[in-house]
Structure formats: structure tokens, C-alpha cells
Amino acid sequence: MIIFLTYLSIADKIYRMRVIMKVPLPKNEPSRLEALRNYKILDTLPETSYDDITRLASHICETPIAVISLVDSKRQWFKAKTGLDFSETPRENAFCAHAILERSLLIIPDTLEDPRFADNPMVTGGPRIRFYAGAPLITPGGEALGTICVSDMVPRDLNRQQQELLLALSRQVMLQLELRLHIIEHERQKQLLDEYQEKLKETNTQLQKAVLTDDVSGFNNTRFLHQFLDYYLLSNHFRNEKLSLVFFDMDNFKQAVDTHGHLLGSKILREVALTVHREMGEMDYIVRYGGDEFVVILPGQAKDESLIKVKKMKKAIQDTSFLQEENINVRLTASFGLATYPDDAGDKEQLLAEADRCLFRSKKKGKASITAKNGS
């Protein structure tokens, strides 16, 4: 008889262990876990708003333990806790794994009287839970992420008001989770917007550069010339600075094109622009005006200073052998015309016209000439 009773006792314990180990899963477990991941709450740092709710739950329900538990695939993790010194347990030991099957409260007045929990390590060992009540945390989509639960070391129950308030606190937890999710999404959208605006800015810069860049020389085009002069002369009322404008073109460029073709002619223009650019200052600009004619903008520079630069440009062109990469030796000269604002012209159109007329006079003088308005 004693042997038989012992057998029954062992069989009962085995049965209870099987009940504990075989944790029930919600029918919507895959979507539930996906929803839990989407909230990006697991393993986050403590937050006061959640800690306050657990303290409030402990006070309302008059229990030493209160927890906000989130049930992952193999564990339950505590976002906030009162009365416990650990932050997670295996899912098979989790009371909350059962509570998420409910749409309302799960109340266990005495865990030793419930075969699902009587041999649970949380009951037989620390913290020796004898009472449990959990309200599920249900998303707007209907998935139960976990619970807000309270526990005690003695059997007991909750009155109606405590039950209602525990359910109310579960809704407050979900509001916090939803708010947190919205903040994360807002930050993500802001980051995407910032990245989009940065790319748009970069694209606009590239487009603007493309609009203002000459395809042949790789430097500025006439659109840039007019925009720069409009801005500079308008703002110059406050600065009262001079600006010199240099027109130049190649004296024997047509002969080079007739000899070597238009493709190499375009390469010559690029090399000429680079040669002149090396003689310019950081704040100077070179513009391809059309054909083999260029304009150099010298902001803040008077005529005497500009003439020194022009002579260096002329010499640099004369001293350069172009198309060396093609194993061709092309020698060129250039003629220059120079006008200065406001000494020679009072507006943009007049300044352009004066510099162009000076270039025309240089061409009449002969190759490699320099003519400045009211100068040499």
C-alpha cells in the first residue's frame, strides 16, 4: 500500500512537471511575437514612467511584488519591477505565459491549489509566490505582449476595485508603449527626412553646378558670369570694392582646330582654362564665354593689380605646349581686354561691353596684345 501511494505521489509530480514544461501558446503566437519585436522594448533601460506604474500597482493591490512583464519566445522579461531582484525568467516558469491567453484578468488566489503552478520554481523556491493576478497588455491589433501583474507570498484575492484598477493600469502601460513606438517612428521618419533633405541638397548642388558649368572647359559658363556680376554689383553698394573683368581669346586657335580636329580643339580649350586658372587667386573665376573666348573675373582688384595677373596669364599660355598627352605640340598665344568697375563702367552691361571692346582693340593690334580701358 505504501509503495502504491509513493508511486501515485511520484506520478502526480511527473504530471505536474509536464504541465509546467508544456507552456500553452496563443493561437496568434507568430504575429504576437512580431508585434512584440516591433515595439522595440525588449532589453531597454529602465524608464521612470513604467517604474511608476509598477509602484502604483503594488500600492493599489497591496502586494509586495508588481511587474510589467513581456513574454518573448523563450523567456519573460521585466520592463519594470517592484519587489524582485531579477529581470527575467524562462518562459516555462512564467505565470504571465498563461495570462496572455486571457482577454481579461488571470487571478490565482493560491498557487499551491492550481496544478499548473503548484510545482513552479517560482512557487517552490524564491520568491515563493502564493498569489498572482495579471492583466494582459493588449495591442490595438489584439496581440497580448505580456502583462502587468502583482504577486504575494500568501494566498489572497483582489476586490472588484483593485481588479478594475489593475486593468486600467494595463491600458496605461499600453499607452506608454504606443507613445514610445510613435516617438521611435517619429525619430525614424525625421532621420529619413533629414537624409532625404541632405540628398536633395546634394542633388540641387550638383544640378546647380551642372547648370553653371561649361561642358567643354569644365569651368563656369555665361549663366554663372551673369549671376555672379548681378549679385556682386548689387551687394557692392555696401562694400564699395572694385572688380576687374578680363576678356581673352586664342589668336591661332582656328588653325589648331583645322589641323587637329574639333575633339582635340575642345581638349585644347580645357588645357588653356587650366593653364590660366593656375595663375588666378582663390577668389578669382574663369568663364568660357563662347568659342575660344574666355572671361576672367577678378573681384576686389583694381586695374594695376589686374594687369599684373593678365601678363602672367599671357606668359603662361605662351610658355605652354598643349596636347602633350596626345604626343602633339601645339603652341598658342592669346589677346586680352581689361575693364574695371566702377572706374570704366557703372553697371554689368557696360562693364561687359567695355572689356569686350578692349579685347577687340587688342586683336587689331596683333597677336598676344593686352588692352585696358583708359590704360595701355
Beta-strand content bin: 15-25%
Can you say what the CATH homologous superfamily of the largest domain is? GAF domain
Specify the CATH class of the largest domain.
Alpha Beta
Number of helices: 11
CATH-derived topology of the largest domain: Beta-Lactamase
Alpha-carbon distance between the two ends: 133 Å
Compressed to H and E, one letter per element, the order equals: HHHEEEHEHEEHHEHHEEHEHE
Bulk shape? rod-shaped
State the domain count.
2
Uncertain runs = 1-8, 10-21
What characterizes the major β-sheet? Answer: 6 strands, antiparallel
Query: What's the architecture of the largest domain, going by CATH?
Result: 2-Layer Sandwich
Radius of gyration, taken over Cα atoms and rounded to an integer in Å: 42 Å
Structural class by sheet pairing and helices: alpha+beta
Helix content range of the residues, please? 40-55%
Ordered list of secondary-structure elements with their pairings:
Elements: H1 2-21, H2 29-38, H3 48-61, E1 65-71, E2 75-82, E3 88-90, H4 96-99, E4 106-108, H5 121-124, E5 131-138, E6 144-152, H6 160-211, H7 222-239, E7 243-250, H8 253-260, H9 262-277, E8 285-290, E9 293-299, H10 303-318, E10 334-341, H11 348-365, E11 370-372
Parallel strand pairs: 10-11
Antiparallel strand pairs: 1-2, 1-6, 2-3, 4-5, 5-6, 7-9, 7-10, 8-9
Helix pairs in contact: 3-6, 8-9, 9-10
